[in-house]
Each structure stands twice: as C-alpha cells, then as structure tokens.
Amino acid sequence: MSCQRCNTNIYLLDDFTNGCSVCSNCGNVVNNSLCLDEATYDKSTECMSHSMTNHLESQFQLPTAKMKHQSNVSFFSSQDPHTLKLMNFNKKFKQIFNACQLHESIETEAKLLYLDFEKKESMKGRNMDFMVCAFIYIVCQKKNYAMNIKLFGEEFITDIMSCVKFIEESSNIVHVIEAPSDVFHDAQIEAFIRKYSIIIGINRRMIQEIVKLIPKAEFIMRKKEIIAIALIAYYKKNKPIIKTLSKEFCVSELAIKSALREIVE
Asked: What is the CATH number of the domain that holds 92?
C-alpha cells in the first residue's frame, strides 16, 4: 500500500483514532478502513467495549458479552480456549513491549509472527515471557535494527536465545545479509527535530546540522520523537535539554538518555 500522489509508502502513518492511514507528506487518506467498529469484551472492566479496534488487536479480544450475574469462572470456562490463549499472550506482550520503549512497527510485526507461528507449532513447556522477548528480537533482526538483547535482562539471555533458535528452526527463518543501502534518512525524525528545535531556540543552520546526524540513528529502535530529542542533545552536548523537552512533549526522559547512549556508542 502506498500514497497515490507521492508514489511511496515511506510517509504513511496509521491513525487508529480516526481509523485510517494517512500520508504525512501530502495529507492524502490512503486507507479509511483501518479499524473495525465491533463490540469486544474488555477483561479489565468486565464489560463490552464498542471502541474502534484495528483488525490485528481484535484477534486478541473476546467478541462476546458477559452476563450481569455470571461469575468469571463460568464466563471464561465457556470461551474458546484458543482466544483465551491469545489474550494471555497479548497481556504479557504489552507488559514487555511497553517496558522496552520500542517503535510501534515492531509490535505489529512481532504479533503477526506469533499468530503465524502458533498456528503450526506448539509452545507447550516454553516460558511465555521468554517467547515474547524472542519474537520481538527476531523481528528487530529481520528489520536490521541492532537491538541489544540485554535490554530484556542480562540474566535471561541464554533462555531467550534458546527460544529464538526454537522459533527460527521451526519457521525455517534464514538470515540474509543484504548489501548496504543508500544513506539512511527519516522524514518524520527530521520533522520532529525542526519542531523541537524551535521550542529551544535553535537557528536554521544548526537545525540542518542536526538533520545531517539522522544516519546515526538508523539502527536505534526507539520512537521517532525520542530519537529526535536525543539527536538534538547529542549535537548541543547539553543534557538539560533532554529534561526540558521530555516534560514539554511528555516523552520518557530515561528512554531519551538510553537513545543518546546508543548514538554515542
């Protein structure tokens, strides 16, 4: 799927609030059926939800209602075991993924990989936390993002890599070394750099110098807002900027500092 006006998909953004995919370069609505307006059971509130849900997330929810006087034991025992298994995976996945502060695209790819894998293979006897970490790590490798597996905890590396090997061998995943591509650039990171630079009074010449640093962030798998602030702080060699911008735009200060360390390394 790509923008018909720009003839590219590099500017596409998924807007789940309005249920569509939009080109951030020209504003063209590329897909207006991104979300499903179907009632699903929300386990946290024990009631039906009619909020807009994207198709992928709907696979991890119960499309059924709980009767007012029905006990939880009775309700969940009557549900499809496979759907309950998906819900359990999704709960653990969100806990681990949110703690890692990775980019949203990794979440989608990792869940799709899991859905495809669990149709063919049994994960009985495997630790679900380690399997979740393995799916995330494999997707990062597939996308050529240099994610440090120590992010999940250095003491768990052996167990996680065992799960990675199990998934890759079962799925016949082969690592292909690709030839280096053109110099990395990201229009969205640049847009955030320009926006944040105005807030702290950075002039045009300095903004252009910071934009030239974007290739340093090619393999940093963080949100683009975080990368933009880290690049500004790297250029200015001024860590207090991090605190100022993190408060202004509600971005994790710890995540920015982590991204800055990756840039420096």
From this structure: 1.10.472.10
What is the rounded distance in angstroms from the CA atom of residue 101 to the CA atom of residue 224?
11
Dihedral sign, Cα of residue 245, residue 148, residue 219, residue 166: negative
Kindly report the CATH number assigned to the domain that includes residue 253.
Answer: 1.10.472
Query: What are 39-78's pLDDT values in tens digits?
Result: 555 544 555 554 445 566 767 766 555 555 656 556 556 6
| Kind of pairing between the strands at 40-42 and 35-36 | unpaired
pTM exceeds 0.85, yes or no = no
Q: Which of 123, 143, 138, 235 is nearest to 184 (CA)?
A: 143
Residues 6+ apart with CB under 8 A from 190: 211, 214
What is the residue whose two structure tokens read 């996680």? 160
Two tokens, residue 171: 């799925």
**119 & 85 share domain:** yes
User: Per the structure, how many domains does the chain have?
Assistant: 2
